[in-house]
UniProtKB/TrEMBL annotation, chain A:
NCBIfam families: nuoF_fam (TIGR01959), PRK13596.1 (NF010120). It comes from the Bacteria. Belongs to the complex I 51 kDa subunit family. Keywords: 4Fe-4S, Flavoprotein, FMN, Iron, Iron-sulfur, Metal-binding, NAD, Quinone, Translocase. NDH-1 shuttles electrons from NADH, via FMN and iron-sulfur (Fe-S) centers, to quinones in the respiratory chain. One of its GO terms (molecular function) is quinone binding. It catalyses: a quinone + NADH + 5 H(+)(in) = a quinol + NAD(+) + 4 H(+)(out). Coiled coil: none annotated. This is NADH-quinone oxidoreductase subunit F. Its cofactor is FMN; [4Fe-4S] cluster.
Automatic annotation (TrEMBL), chain B:
One of its GO terms (molecular function) is 2 iron, 2 sulfur cluster binding. The keyword Acyltransferase does not apply. This is NADH dehydrogenase subunit E. Belongs to the complex I 24 kDa subunit family. The lineage of its organism: Bacteria, Pseudomonadati, Bacteroidota, Cytophagia, Cytophagales. [2Fe-2S] cluster binds at C91, C96, C133, C137. Coiled coil: none annotated. Its cofactor is [2Fe-2S] cluster. It holds the Pfam family 2Fe-2S_thioredx.
Amino acid sequence: MGRKLLTEHINVEGINTFEVYRKHGGYRSVEKALKTMTPDEVVEEVKKSGLRGRGGAGFPTGMKWSFLAKPEGVPRYLVCNADESEPGTFKDRQLMSKLPHLLVEGMITSSYALGANTSYIYIRGELLYVLRILEKAIAEAYANGFLGKNILGSGYDLDLHVHPGGGAYICGEETALLESLEGKRGNPRNKPPFPAVQGLYARPTVVNNVESIAAVVPIINEGGDEYAKLGVGKSTGTKLISACGHLNKPGIYEIELGVPVEEFIYSDEYCGGIWKGRELKAVVAGGSSVPILPKELILKTAAGENRLMTYESLSDGGFVTGTMLGSGGFIAMDETTCIVRNTWNFSRFYHHESCGQCSPCREGTGWLEKVLHRLEHGHGHMEDIDLLVSVAKQIEGNTICPLGEAAAWPVAAAVRHFRHEFEWHVTNAKEAAQPGAVYRANGVLV
Amino acid sequence: METITVKPQFSEAAQAEIKRLLTHYPDDRRKSALLPVLHIAQAEFGGWVSPEVQDLVAETLGLKPIEVYEVSSFYTMFNLKPVGKHVLEICRTGPCMLRGSDELTAHLERITGAKVGGPASADGLFTLKEVECLAACGFAPIVQVREKYYERLDTPEAVDAMLTELRNQVHRPALPWEETGLPNALANN
């Protein structure tokens, strides 16, 4: 069993309180950083750790930090992205509701590293109950001298606040999040300028995912080099995987990066196999935006090597035969799943969530949803299949933010790997439109 | 549904909470408090934000009314029409669909008599609303009611337990800054 750096104490009774969290080694990273390290030394440790952004993009966190502009006399901000909304992803909600102090501790240590004196946690509005939990933890941290003026006598001041969204997937995009935090519609901004130069209130800002901020705690406690020893190659450390769909044991698993996908799905230590004794059909490995892969390509690469839960192994083969680790939202689908219906569902999601600023996304996501709806409901044409690919291509790369790609990739991949199933929806339209209908090759489920 | 004829006012508890929230942002950035204050308004005034309530929010934060309207209409959590006593927000996105959200929606429509996207049930108790991913996919299918998640609603028993709990709620659960549930909140319906 791999090491658990974030969730080791998640089931300890009362770990959501300051007292119990502290007893289990909580807030050591704050003491170490504020008393024995300079801010730059903290940044250096995070760089050494190889930590990559856990929200989905996988950009090195230490490098992101080093881009932060530091003009004299201008306040800068750290904003935690807790707008967890990528379908299939529910790790941050679990982490924050069970271990609120881990995020608070990570925010203090990270804010110190960046020289921020005011920091925010932007949490999706649906999670107001988690906001209450975090506010309680923050109040405890203030009461114990870990927030406020002159923390631990170090001369460092920090105020930390939680801010709710209002229900909008797009606010997970960092500039839309900042707009939302300013009390506006969540329309992503044109870049440049990047948030590192002009972010919240046009001041230098770093936006990091909940899990990335939490990972700073073990990185500072144990050192960046120690953290980097876990994992494989450039996929260092541990990752929270949100496992859902047709699994025997859906839930959150903290894995050491490098676990084989097959072991993750089938071993009792993790998901315990596919429910109801069924066969696996397909997996969306990193949240709804990443390409879907059929069973044979998620378990093994095109070259026949075991697929591992790492950034590199999952993307082996590019988008032709590979996918992405993304946010770690791992959605398993059994043999009775209709891929067309599932793809339509995801397209409806992106159409609903498009902010409407860029025409290719606003119109294109609508086209994708409409064409998929008619295929799924027995009114499709054979040309529709290539039309989907064509629309997806016209969205990709032509929008201000990555929601366009997120909408296009799943459709392109579903057609790439399951074209026969789309064709069957045209040739056997009546049968395919029945509720629960699923494509069978020669009468056999595939 | 009663029509609001007098100008709505925030309760004292809510006013105090808004004052506290405003300390979170720079003095010249009061607009930042808009989303949190809209949440408070929706909780205070019967689960939706009428134009009058939105005007109150604008006045409270020193904003133009349009600055509130354009935001309340962008985010899906704010109900712009009257709702039943309880709004059941049913997740319809992929992972929930794989675990039976379509069947759950049909079941809820049958037993409450309300339709998704339509008016509240005849008894005024339930409004059904389909929403996108609620970030609880491992516990699918899911319904959110106010601040509470009801998870693994894949059996009639689990659904019944949720509905019974809601039917027995006289007042909505109190929020942290309130001593008790607001008397005017559920009574509005």
